[in-house]
Every structure is written in structure tokens, then in C-alpha cells.
Amino acid sequence: MQLSDIKFDCRHFRGDIPCAPNKLRDQVCSACDEYDPIRTRILIIKLGAIGDVIRTTPLLQRFREEYPGAHISWVTLTPEILPASRIDKIYKFDFKAIYALTHLEFDIAVNLDKDVEACALLHDVTAAHKFGFSLEHSRLTALNAAAEDKLITGAFDNISKQNRKSYLEEIFAICGFEFKKEPYVLELKDRLEAGWQELRERAAGRKIIGLNTGCGKRWLTRLWPETYWIELIKKLQEANQFPLLLGGPEEDGQNRTLAQKSGATYLGTFPLQQFLSLTAQCDVVVTAVTMMMHIALGLRKPLVLFNNIFNPHEFELYGNGVMVQPESGCDCYFGNTCRRARHCMLDLPVATVFNAIQEMSHRAGEPVSSRML
Fold first, then answer.
1. Can you say whether the dihedral through the CA atoms of 270, 277, 186, 229 is positive or negative?
2. Predicted pLDDT of residue 369
3. Which pLDDT score is estimated for 367?
4. In 3D, which of 149, 151, 169, 177 has the Cα closest to residue 42?
5. Any bridge partners for residue 130, and if so which?
């Protein structure tokens, strides 16, 4: 076999180690029946946060449809959240990845983050077509009209308030597409599913209502009062439903307190993949606009979404969620300090949330496609 016989453009070719067809069947390039040529090389730059990475995954389906035979690479800070079966090469954003990516060539490269490190990477990457955000004269710039719109709405609150497009409509437009309800893509580890048998036994056939009680540290104005959570839990228990407290390390103390005061079940904190698997056991998820919202959407779980400080048009719920907001509105747009003497989240009644949960619990188990907008 000669070097000229090697199909360097084949999807299976590794170079540093034998490819799968060779390893499994002794296939060689000159006579291989699994030759799969790469037709388009695509790079997606979306570093974080985790929720933002999850809500960018609908692009995968469209890129596959528009570019058959594409090789898709994705660089991120959290590789473990990406669906490995749908992406050819996943890079963790570090020196090794940056060094490699800036020495590779792509047909299409898109950056959907405005952080300087993401923009610098797109600036340095070699690609025939670039979309999204980059650097020019050491400052942020937009490479196409849709990216310009996204930059402007992100930089000026008064303009952002007028926006009527969802995040997905915006990023699809940046990539040159029209959003057509392409779904989130999450992958669960099958081996973790068996670990929740005890939880299902404790629920004893009752619908499990996942309550994500926190909101992260960036925008604490989204917090719902502890007394409201306790009242909601008691109403769920009276309705013969099974409240399950959810959260990460930042919510651990609060969730332990809520469990002690209300009798709700709290199992503690878990690594990301195990947390996904736990959330998959829920029939309905209640959460503020956090990573949990995007996990629930990715798992096709009926969703009750708290919102006060964000533009409600930003969120695509796929016909599988209901948004509840303070009856008095909110004055602190994207703010971390409440401008009122009375915090607006006090004006989101427990009864409103409970009724929304009952509405969504009736949908649990239905095919999501039948509820799509």
C-alpha cells in the first residue's frame, strides 16, 4: 500500500491510530467499503455557560440537513454536555485545542459568543466562510447582519426590550438559516438509569415534580421566597404528587433546609451526567431561567418557567412549557439589584405556580411532537 492510496478525506481516518474499519475488519483504504468522504468541514464555537451550550445544539440538525457529509467540530468549556454521537470532534477549550484549531482549515466557522477569547479564536481560525462574532482592531465586531442585530440587542437594554425574536431564531439567522423548531439534543447515559429505582419506589406511582429552587449567583433578583417554596411543596403533597428538590452546590444548603421544613425529598448534588439522569425521572420541572430550564427542554420534560428580569420572547419552549411571571411586572431588566421596596417575585403567587404545574402534569407522557407550536 502506498501513501497515495490513503483516503485522508475519509471520516473514519485517524492517522495516529488505525481507523475502526481497519481495526474491526482489516479494511484498507484502497478497497474499503466504508469510505465516507468529508464534504464540508464546520466549526462551532460556543464556550459556555452550560445552558447556553445546550440551547445551541438545535443547530446540529440543520447543519446536517444543509450539508450532507459534513464533519462538525465544536469547541466548548464543557464537552461532557454535548451529544458525542452527533458531533465528529469535540474540543475542550484549552491551549491544545486552540493550537490545533488555528492550524486546521474549515469551510464554515461560526462563533456565537461575544467573549474576547471566543472572538479571538474565530479571528485566528482559517475558514472560507465565517459567521457570528470576531475581533477587529482589538474590539468586538459582527461578521454578518444577523450578528450585528444580536450585538446591538445585547449592548442596549432599551433596544433589547423591543426584541421579539427567540435566542434560537437569532442564532439560526446568524448561521444563515430560518429556525424551524429544530429540537435540543441531549444524550443520557443508559448505565445511570438503573440508579433511580429507589426514587421511583418512594414516589410510588405519584408524579414526580422537580423543583429547581435556585437561580445561580449572577442574577439573584430571580429568587422565589423560601416560604413560597414550602407552601408550594405542601400543596403538591396534598395533591398526591411527589416534590423532588433539585439544584447544584449553590442550592445545597437551601434545599436541605426546605427538605427539613417541608418533608420534600432531596437527594443531594451530583455530577452533570448523573444530574441529567435524575432530571429525566421527573414528570414536570419547575425552574427559573437557568441551566435546568435547558436540561428540561432537552429531555422533553413539561416545564414551568419562572421569569421576571428577562425578555420573555427570548425563550423557545417548544409548546411544552408555561411561563409564569410576577403579577406586578419587573423593573430591573437583567438586573441583580431590585429597584423596588417590595421584591417583584413576592408577586408571583403560589397558587399561580401550583395551577401551572397541574396544567403541565396533564401533559406528562404525551409525545412532545403533538404539542409543538
1. negative
2. 41
3. 52
4. 177
5. 109
SS3 194: helix
Nearest Cα neighbor of 100 from 109, 112, 91 is 91
> Is there a contact between 178 and 66 (Cβ–Cβ < 8 Å)?
no
Set of cell numbers at residue 216: 445561580
Cβ-count burial 167-205 (b if 16+ within 10 Å, e if not): bbbbbbbbbebebeebbbbbeeeeebeeebeebeeebee
Neighbours of 350 (CB within 10 A): 18
Whole-number Å distance between alpha carbons of 51 and 287: 13
Quick one: which of 246, 261, 268, 265 has its CA closest to 206? Answer: 265
Work out the average pLDDT over 37-53. Answer: 96
What domains can be seen in the chain, in order of their start residue? 1-37 (no CATH), 40-174 (3.40.50.720), 204-371 (3.40.50.2000)
Residue 366: predicted pLDDT:
62
Question: Average pLDDT of 144-170?
Answer: 95
- SS3 for 40-101 is EEEEEECCCCHHHHHCCCHHHHHHHHHCCCEEEEEEECCHHHCCHHHCCEEEECCHHHHHHH
Full-model pTM:
0.92
The pair phi, psi for residue 75, each rounded to 5°, is -115, 135
